[in-house]
Amino acid sequence: MVSEKSNGCPLHGGGAAAQSFMGRLLAEVVGSQHVYGSDAPAGPLDVWLIDDRGASVHVTTGSDGCLIVEESEPHTGYDMGDWGRVTVGAIGNETPFADHIGESILAVREEHEPNTGRVALELSFPRGRVRCESWAEDLRLTRM
After folding, report:
1. What pTM did the predictor assign?
2. Helix, strand, coil % (nearest 5) of the chain?
3. Alpha carbon separation from 94 to 13, 32, 54, 110 (Å, rounded)
4. 13-43 per-position pLDDT tens digit
5. Could you tell me how far CA 10 lies from the centroid of its own chain?
6. Largest CA distance in the chain
7. How many Cβ atoms are within 10 Å of 1's Cβ, its own excluded?
């Protein structure tokens, strides 16, 4: 008998069921960014997709290369001393989600790797798609 392998990340679990996002209206996008000195902010490191009811879906990457997707509230920023700081705030206009604020999620597609779990999440909106993926342990957001 062959056992079926889970699509969940071995370190972080399966996270939120992506299919539950269908029908949600994207109201706001919050993100975290690394700021160091006078350099332009890097990131986003994380994004939180806030729906019209205030529910929040956190999308980020794990140290093992997985894409973490979970229902959780945005955390606060923090100081990292000599290494800069992480800021958290509204960044909708700085992401591919900008064109889709106020739109409903029509479809969701995920990609998984056998040893890593989820590595990509693609959200379809009436006027396009946004792909979230773990890329070399960084979060990459792409307009499709």
Report:
1. 0.87
2. 10, 50, 40
3. 29, 12, 21, 23
4. 677 777 888 899 999 999 999 999 888 777 7
5. 18
6. 59
7. 2
Mention every residue, 6+ apart, whose C-beta is less than 8 A from residue 34: 41, 42, 43, 45, 84, 85, 86
Of 103, 121, 126, residue with least CA distance to 52: 103
Residue whose token pair is 């006078």: 38
8 A C-beta contact, residue 30 and residue 48: yes
Q: H helices within 11-144, ranges in order?
A: none
Kind and range of the H or E run holding 101: none
The whole-angstrom separation of Cα 7 and Cα 14 is: 7
Q: Where are the beta strands (DSSP E) in the chain?
A: 26-35, 42-51, 56-61, 67-71, 78-79, 85-90, 107-113, 117-125, 128-135, 138-143
pLDDT in tens, 85-100: 999 999 878 899 999 9
Is the distance from CB of 139 to CB of 59 less than 8 angstroms? yes
Strand order in the sheet with 117-125: 107-113, 117-125, 128-135, 138-143
